[in-house]
TrEMBL record:
<protein>
    <submittedName>
        <fullName>Response regulator receiver modulated diguanylate cyclase/phosphodiesterase</fullName>
    </submittedName>
</protein>
<feature type="domain" description="EAL">
    <location>
        <begin position="23"/>
        <end position="279"/>
    </location>
</feature>
Amino acid sequence: AKREGRNNFQYYTVQMNATSWQRLKLETELRQALARNEFELHYQPKVDMDCNKIVGMEALLRWQSAERGLVTPAEFIPLLEETGLILPVGEWVLREACKQARAWQDAGIPDVHIAVNLSSLQFRQPDFAGSVLKIMQEHGLDPAMNGIELELTESLLLDNVARTIDTLNTLHEAGIRFSIDDFGTGYSSLSYLKRFPISSLKIDQSFVQDLSSNRDDESIVSAIIALGRSLGLSVIAEGVETAEQSAQLRRMGCDGMQGYLFSRPVPVAEMTYLLQNSANL
Ligand code: C2E
Ligand code: CA
Ligand code: CA
Ligand code: CA
């Protein structure tokens, strides 16, 4: 029995080592990915509820790995956050989005609004507001004119509220807009909503999925829409996949939608095509 135990222990250790080895390997690859410029942004249109026109887009990070192929964020964002690599990668995302906004403007495409996702580590950096404004300036973007929008989560907003309000106000005064991502899944931030300079709420896709069959989801979605309306915020539904969902959200008074029904996140060339043909999706 003693021997068996020892063998089990050894087996366990080998397993642990395999896991930490894989993590280390992924971390090393992610560091190289940044140096080798293997990250890219894909863009998913945000569509206006009334006219089905593209009114903005969300930038979503992708990793084009020689070894692994196209990797989506769920597989690497957690490790980026644990290792702090999210800081240089997040800055790359912001620069890339600004570079693209500049390029689209130079190509004569007006009113491009690109929403960028922020991790809380990034937001907590000293003088985060100053560094965002600097990056925009470097790309010749006037924050008041050219829409860079930042998507924040509820948990990010509620961690150190006083400092959050400070950072948000500095950026808001310069013209940057904010939306709350995955709204409804985090802590209840209702009392703070009116203290933050937020312009929109994004209803999490988990509430949209079974909207037509689940009464609870329907109640939550209408409550969010009513809340948004009374606070003067626009409300965007995420993860809209069916015409049925879209029709119901329209009836409920939602302002905008995002989802596979209109377009998946697409590489820059396809997004340019959609914008140039000012596509009604
Ligand atoms: P998110 O911000 O909630 O982004 C929405 C996710 O839903 C995206 O997944 C998008 O591709 C997916 N999606 C869009 N429409 C539909 C639909 O109709 N049906 C379904 N099932 N899914 C849809 P993605 O691109 O894999 O990103 C996952 C998460 O990774 C994002 O969730 C965001 O939290 C994070 N992320 C992505 N890019 C960045 C980034 O640049 N920085 C940071 N910090 N996080 C990022
Ligand atoms: Ca988002
Ligand atoms: Ca979301
Ligand atoms: Ca999400």
